[in-house]
Design brief:
A: three-stranded antiparallel beta sheet; 19% strand
Chain lengths: 138, 405
């Protein structure tokens, strides 16, 4: 199976690989997936006083499409508000990266990671956690 | 100069040796006859070529030419052996013993047998990938008609104790079938010394063409029979009908002859390169060889690089180097290799494995390039692996509640 140029690009030059200080109150961390399933994503957001995401970082254990999905997600997150962030839909990632059907779960994982990071941030800041419908594709 | 891509997936298939292709060519054009045409020179010529190839093939495995049944490949030979014995020996019993790291061609055929009312015992293997002789003995019943154990495994290269297996089977009066697809042409295989009654193998794993294989069926001590699975003109002593693939069979014969005469030298060269690759890659922190290192084919090594996912790893160099991964991220099931799991590897290690299969035309330059590319990619991916970070921070990953999906 050939990868799309966009997946290759993110794989070769991933954007925003790294770690934010998870002990800070304005940093939200989402850790999703499982080693047994062959992919684990950790996505972190740092939110400024206006509720804007000023930095986003990821680390991913997984295939090229999983790495590309999380790299793309961090790019899209920067500059968004936390409320806008949770509106990112996995199908937007699928379209942007031209992921084939067998790789849709990578985009779902990225969406889940965003939601988990936002909820972690909300929890730390005394906000109620958002409830999400269970993702269908896994 | 290095030519790209480098091919290190010789357990999947091998290129045709140019000498094999040369031998085949006349049988596509001038000598195109049907080996079953008994009344004219075209047929005689084809038959003669097939007879010669049958001798070449038989010689490589220490068999008599009459014991070779040509098929379309090893999968067909596996099917013919297992289903053929099951049907032919139905009056003696319906129980077959195999093991859980067999190729799917054997496992799925056994599943079929179960649907037909047969009983199959799937022996487990130890962490080295070998079956336990005591467990095999304990699994034998009065109804056991066949022990089907692979000669060597396709993913990890482990070589099974065929002599011990056949000695036990002989004592109990049970037939032994071996899928020797990965072993024949690579290591000395002798059906008499090894005590094998039926054996499947194929040309394209030993520098011959695709689409041709063979089933060895013993004719003496005991005389073994299988029920045909393809009916028709009664070719191959009635065990496998269908016009013979003459060019393919000629190529298969030539490939066997070359393996026979060059195996010794070739093994020395290939295993030295394999060892160089393996030694260099296992110097990488947290990398492990899967399967027995002692009982193993000379050209394979299967290595897990912990905290890096196999397919992601492949992507770092698969434009330049062709290897295969035990991770099945692309398959619909998302299940990693059942062979590696059978060794007791956790799913995480199974997802992190690569299989390197060296071959006749592998060079030292290619191995040096591969060592560098793999080492670099492992370290790059670990830099972006959350698991590697946790490992380095001493976090117990079993203490984390993973969201399984």
């Amino acid at each position: 199976m050939a990868y799309s140029d966009k997946v290759l690009g993110h794989y070769q030059n991933p954007k925003n690989v790294g770690t934010l200080d998870k002990s800070k109150q304005n940093v939200g961390t989402g850790l999703v997936g499982a080693p047994e399933c062959g992919d684990v994503m950790r996505l972190q957001i740092e939110v400024d006083e206006n509720g804007l995401i000023k930095d986003a970082k990821f680390k991913t254990f997984g295939c090229g499409s999983a790495i590309a999905s999380s790299s793309l997600a961090t790019e899209w997150l920067k500059g968004k508000t936390v409320d806008e962030a949770v509106k990112i839909d996995n199908m937007e990632i699928v379209e942007e990266l031209h992921l084939p059907p067998v790789k849709i779960h990578c985009s779902v994982l990225a969406e889940d990671a965003i939601k988990a990071a936002v909820n972690d941030y909300r929890k730390k800041n005394g906000l109620p956690e958002l409830k999400f419908e269970e993702s269908v594709v896994h | 100069m290095l030519k790209f891509p480098i091919y290190l997936d010789h357990n999947a298939t091998t290129p045709c040796d140019p000498r094999v292709v040369e031998a085949m060519i006349p049988y596509f054009t001038n000598n195109f006859g049907n080996a079953a045409s008994r009344n004219h020179p075209f047929g005689w010529q084809a038959e003669e070529a097939v007879d010669y190839a049958r001798e070449q093939v038989a010689k490589l495995i220490g068999a008599d030419p009459k014991e070779i049944i040509f098929t379309s490949g090893a999968t067909e030979a596996d099917n013919l052996a297992i289903k053929g014995v099951f049907e032919m020996y139905a009056s003696k019993g319906n129980h077959i013993i195999t093991c859980n790291i067999e190729h799917k061609a054997v496992l799925d055929t056994c599943k079929h047998i179960e649907k037909e009312g047969g009983e199959v015992t799937y022996l487990k293997v130890n962490p080295e990938g070998l079956i336990d002789m005591k467990e095999l003995e304990a699994a034998i019943k009065p109804t056991t008609i066949l022990i089907a154990i692979m000669y060597a495994n396709n993913e990890i290269g482990t070589v099974m104790p065929m002599k011990e297996i056949s000695a036990l089977a002989k004592k109990k009066g049970i037939l032994v079938f071996s899928d020797a697809t990965q072993a024949v042409g690579k290591i000395p295989v002798d059906v008499n010394k090894d005590g094998i009654d039926l054996m499947a193998f194929t040309a394209h794993k030993m520098y011959g063409p695709k689409g041709v294989g063979a089933l060895y069926v013993r004719r003496k001590n005991p005389r073994v029979k299988v029920t045909a699975q393809i009916d028709g003109g009664g070719h191959e002593r009635g065990m496998r009908s269908g016009t013979l693939n003459v060019p393919g069979i000629v190529g298969f014969g030539k490939a066997c002859e070359i393996c026979m005469s060059e195996m010794g030298e070739e093994t020395k060269k290939i295993s030295a390169l394999r060892d160089k690759l393996e030694n260099a890659l296992t110097k990488i922190e947290e990398s492990y060889v899967n399967g027995s290192k002692q009982y193993r084919l000379p050209h394979v090594t299967n290595i897990s690089f912990k905290y890096v996912e196999g397919e992601g790893l492949l992507m770092g160099f698969n434009k330049d180097i062709a290897v295969s991964s035990g991770s099945a991220c692309t398959s619909a099931s998302l299940e990693p290799s059942y062979v590696l799991k059978a060794l007791g590897l956790g799913d995480d290690l199974a997802h992190s494995s690569l299989r390197f299969g060296l071959g006749r035309f592998t060079t030292e330059d290619q191995i040096d390039y591969t060592i560098e590319a793999v080492t670099k990619t492992v370290s790059k991916l670990r830099e972006m692996s959350p698991l590697w970070e946790m490992y380095k921070e001493g976090i117990d990953m079993n203490s984390i509640e993973w969201a399984h999906h």
